[in-house]
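User: My collaborator sent over this chain with a note saying "see what the structure looks like." That's all I know about it. Can you take a look?
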Amino acid sequence: MDCRKNTSLLIWTACALFAPPVFAAKVTLVGLIGSKAIIVIDGRAPRTLAPGQKTAEGVMLLATEKDAASFEIDGKKTVLRMGQAYSAARASRQSVTLNADTRGHFVTMGSINGGSVRFLVDTGATFVSLPAGEARRLGIDYLRGQRGQMQTANGVATAYRVTLDSVRIGDIEVNNVDAVVSEGDALGVTLLGMSFLNRMEMKRDGISMTLSKRY
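Assistant: Without extra context I'll predict from the sequence alone. Here is the result:
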């Protein structure tokens, strides 16, 4: 149906109803005025949003802070600081697909605080969990963390609760991740537990698992 060639109100309305939705490809926070935010969408003229106000491109301002603002963009929550941009193309790349090994385990290389780590995905682990030797190699001063006990497959071990600056696999990076470090040999591998996985959307398809970062 060609909307330009039909002047009937009924036909015009049908064209409008069935037109594909417009979504923002790039949103940049360029200014803050009190509780309002000034944004640029896809390089067009700046516009000002009040809390709760939503644009036709699916951008809604939730709240502002001193130098940042939180938005709902295309149905996903994201926080932008002054001058920072949200890119839908970039967001779509923040996912990784893992394939199970011959034992059915999902193992992947990644990093903790910038240091290379081999992870075993474990949805039964509450936290990202790593052996003390691995923590020392990564420069984590775990002895300053909260001390406690941890039940492992090899028994009870002394463990320390810490916060990791960053955990990364593929294009996905998450900051301020709760973790535990276990002493001794009770934990022989670094577990990618739910303190990281809870911030993902997980989809299982046969021997494949896709993790996508939530916004």
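A starting point for your reply to your collaborator: The two ends are 36 Å apart (CA to CA).
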